[in-house]
Amino acid sequence: MASKHRILQVGSLAGSPSANQRLADAYDVLELWKHTDRKAALAEYGKGITALVTSATMGANAELIEALPDLKSICSWGVGYETIDLQAARARGVMVSNTPDVLTDCVADLAWGLIIAGARRMTLGDRYVRAGRWGQVHGNIPLGTRVSGKKLGIVGLGRIGQAIARRGQGFDMEVRYHNRRPREDSPYGYEATLVELARWADFLVVATVGGPQTRHLVNQEVIEALGTKGIIVNIARGPVIDEQALVTALENGKLGGAALDVFEHEPNVPDALKTSDNTVLLPHIGSATYETRMAMEDLMLENLQSFFQTGKLVTPVE
């Protein structure tokens, strides 16, 4: 019987239906999260490990990459890779893969759920019903705003941004976007600055990549340009928005509302966001459907299998 390939798994993939078990069945897994002294475990067991499994939450920093002298591939469960030190990986000739495309539709669906929930004050209405305040609703609960026919601004017109934009057409919305540069293949209007996009939009959806290059891209100026009736939606990464500027704008009435699936310091969420009647808050569940998590799991395992069989990855990060 052939021996199993040895791999390192940085942390438990508890959000995936069966990834932990499938990895254990197929490979000789060093489960790093079960070792209290990670450095000692890597020093003792790291030699000979050529593949590492991680996620956007757990990442793979330069120290971890350097601790594995034979490492050749990093297979990440999820689309984001800002927590993987790509520079350190490339310097060592280590290939990196993620799981793009398979979560596009579910994240775009959730963005639209947040748009509608934020505009129509759905979570506030839910709290009224649960608290037995139904009879007080008319005249007491603040009025929402219409979604159909409004202006939709998208920050980052990648796979997910495009899926969000397509759904906007079903709501008879005019769509514009901001990227580092215009997309020649896009039918939507382009705004060269994020401030101008925010000033134009009724709804501003953040769908750009995370990482140092986009940290606080949505700053005080952008937030205030969106205005007192505007609603911001974030399904990308929390640090893209300056969270303190967001809180201040909501408290001062300079922003209409915020509907957020991600936060700057997860899982910590400012109390001011929790207590505001103008927010919708979700616990980072953009990809959290059985179908999508299973597809992410399958693709991560497909990348791992491809590496061991061919030396190549199916969905490498370029």
Can you tell me about this structure?
It is a single chain. The protein folds into two domains: 6-98 and 291-310, NAD(P)-binding Rossmann-like Domain (Rossmann fold, 3-Layer(aba) Sandwich), CATH 3.40.50; 103-281, Rossmann fold (3-Layer(aba) Sandwich), CATH 3.40.50. Helices cover 35% and strands 15% of the residues. By secondary structure, the chain is α/β, with parallel strands linked by helices. It is elongated, with a radius of gyration of 22 Å. The chain has twelve helices and twelve strands. The mean pLDDT is 96. The longest helix has 21 residues, at 290-310. It has helices spanning 19-26, 38-45, 62-66, 86-91, 104-119, 122-130, 159-169, 194-200, 220-226, 243-251, 271-275, 290-310, and strands at residues 6-9, 28-31, 51-55, 73-77, 95-97, 151-155, 174-178, 189-190, 203-206, 231-234, 257-260, 279-281. The strands form two sheets. A seven-stranded parallel beta sheet has the order 8-7-6-9-10-11-12, sandwiched between helices. The relative contact order is 0.14.
Map the helices and strands:
Elements: E1 6-9, H1 19-26, E2 28-31, H2 38-45, E3 51-55, H3 62-66, E4 73-77, H4 86-91, E5 95-97, H5 104-119, H6 122-130, E6 151-155, H7 159-169, E7 174-178, E8 189-190, H8 194-200, E9 203-206, H9 220-226, E10 231-234, H10 243-251, E11 257-260, H11 271-275, E12 279-281, H12 290-310
Parallel strand pairs: 1-2, 1-3, 3-4, 4-5, 6-7, 6-9, 7-8, 9-10, 10-11, 11-12
Helix pairs in contact: 5-7, 8-9
Keywords: NAD, NADP, Oxidoreductase
Pfam families: 2-Hacid_dh (PF00389), 2-Hacid_dh_C (PF02826)
GO molecular function: glyoxylate reductase (NADPH) activity; hydroxypyruvate reductase [NAD(P)H] activity; NAD binding
